[in-house]
Amino acid sequence: METMTVVNLVKLVSFVLYVICLVCDTVLAAAAITNAEIIEQPFFDDISPRNVTTVVDDTVVLKCRVKNKGNRTVSWMRKRDLHILTSNIYTYTGDQRFDVIHAPESDDWDLKIEYAQQRDSGIYECQVNTEPKINLAVYLEVTGTEIGGIGKIDENLIHGNDKAARARIMGSQEVHVKRGSTISLSCAVNVHASSVSWFHGSSVVDFDSARGGISLETEKTESGTSSRLMLTRAALRDSGNYTCVPAGAVSASVLVYVLNGEHPAAMQTSSSGPCPSNIALILLCILSICPCHRTTISQTMSCILTLICR
To answer: Of 55, 77, 83, 81, nearest to 64 (Cα)?
Structure first.
């Protein structure tokens, strides 16, 4: 009887120890998983400066190193307008000065800004789409005077020989487009300019303005630099003087007229030559001083202009 009691007691103790081991294993496994999850969560290797200063027209790089990224997405956002500039290796802005620097298998996701301008100053955030999202803020300050100094080009360039560094508008010096169409302006520089800016009037063209639809393509060629400015959905407010301003070279300007509706016959451009403006002016005067039969006169004027300008 006592032997049976001892045996049962041993079995009970063994069972209790077995249960305790199971519980311990479960707790340890859960702890290990939790620790692994904590370790594998993305985090910023915050070794780079949070405040970056550069000068106008320099290239600046904002650093962002993400450890344990996994399959997460790293993005750069401009804080002032919440504009997403990059996402992983892709760029989401019409301003081609912005790009992301990332080498394969690297933890670095750096934002590069070429030809920095004072308007680029502000806070930029490197973000990782964890839950909750984590971000690293970097403040950029661009100092100095913008190349917007139209008219600040060295007088020696302006009054020098024909080989001086200068921009040249490709095509006509006056461009007429219908409202809603695309404005395309191109200029060529006879040197390899470090940067090319475009101005509308006295203001630099803002590629990320609320207007939208603005893009710039600048590339180096064998003979120098070419720059192409495109504005989609042209509106009347887009009319005016546009100036191509290369760094260290004489600028060049073009006048843009955005017309509401059909082009007036006297303002249309043609590959066979411009329409004689004197005749057009005479016909317009006739129309203005003869209120009667305006329809007939208008039709006659249109017909004559068509024949002359053909």
So the answer is: 77
